[in-house]
Amino acid sequence: MILVVGGAGYVGSVLVRELLERGYAVKVFDRLYYGDHGIRDVAERIKLEAGDIRTMDVSVLDGVDAVINLGGLSNDPTAEYNPKANFEMNTQATEVLAGLCKKRGIRRFIFASSCSIYDVGIGNDEKDIVLDEESPVNPKAAYSSSKYQAEKSLLAMTGSDFSPVILRKGTIYGFSPRMRYDLVVNTFLKDALSKGHLTIHYGGEMWRPLVDVRDAARAYITCLEADEDKVKGEVFNVVYGNFRVSELALRVVEALKEVDVKAEIRPDYRYHGVRSYRVSGKKLERTLDFTPEVSVEEAVKDMVESIARYRYSDFDNPRYYNIAWMKLLEEADRIIKVTRSVFELAPSSAFQPTVIGAQRRSQGADR
Predict the structure, then answer these.
(1) Contact 236/116 with Cβ under 8 angstroms?
(2) Where are the alpha helices (DSSP H) in 4-135?
(3) From edge to edge, which strands make up the β-sheet containing 241-244?
(4) What's the CATH fold of domain 2-180+211-241+279-295?
(5) Structure confidence by residue, pLDDT tens digits, 222-260
(6) Does the chain have fewer CB atoms within 10 Å around its N or its C terminus?
(7) What is the pLDDT of residues 122-159, one digit of tens each?
């Protein structure tokens, strides 16, 4: 049985289906921040345990043969919004989970890292080169540094009884049953469909390594099935290609023309805090004969069809945007602590003016 931590998320929902299609028994452990939409139609074919990776009970590992850890906070905005939770989930909980696996004799542990570890930023032309797994890195952002610290801890655990594998994925694009519109290609498509135009910030000069979500899922399975001596203690970049953001915009617009969707590009040359880096995926190809196959254009056309089929065209729904959804959940939690259940009768003692006042002061309402 394969345990997929974070299996109800954007990548996890696709990976779970790919594993099932290959005949694997699958257990999903997920906080279900975004509900179970991503895995609802395969719910009868998997084991699902809801919980927080920071407090996972060791019993979750019963019957598990390998672990793919996609859990934790998954982008810069959410990490910067709560750096403490980001570090607890992405770094500390990963270390604890890996230690539990090692004690239980679960050898294969595949970790979802990120190519954002390589970010050199705009204005560093002397560093604007294609980087590989041997390139020195020194990530500063909360998200990328938490992933890098987890990587180092996992590699230090490598031994005759434990085989960690680290996948640094490029920025992902493509359709998932747990859809996101806060990723660059997906955002371009969403804006094209909802506004008729897409905006490229900072003139689109920055570089990004990208990969389709289906290729990312296939990469995990390739590392799961590979001979241990080829992957133990290894780091692999997962990249379809490197693109300037301006080129991505052009590719999205051209692909949309083939499905009768017209959109224009509007450049914005004002400075924005942007990431820029190029990454090589040759090691994965050389070692495991794995090459991502799904182009940006193919993914765009597939997304148009899938968005219509799943009725995910309510583009303003915060569920599709990680940071917006987290803020909404946080606000709902504050309210429910006061109101209790929405419709059930609540005792009068539940409504304490001092509590309400404290809530308002914490939000700046009494200033």
Answers:
(1) no
(2) 10-21, 76-81, 83-87, 93-104
(3) 171-173, 207-212, 241-244
(4) Rossmann fold (3.40.50)
(5) 999 999 999 999 999 999 999 999 999 999 999 999 999
(6) C
(7) 666 666 789 999 999 999 888 999 999 999 999 999 99
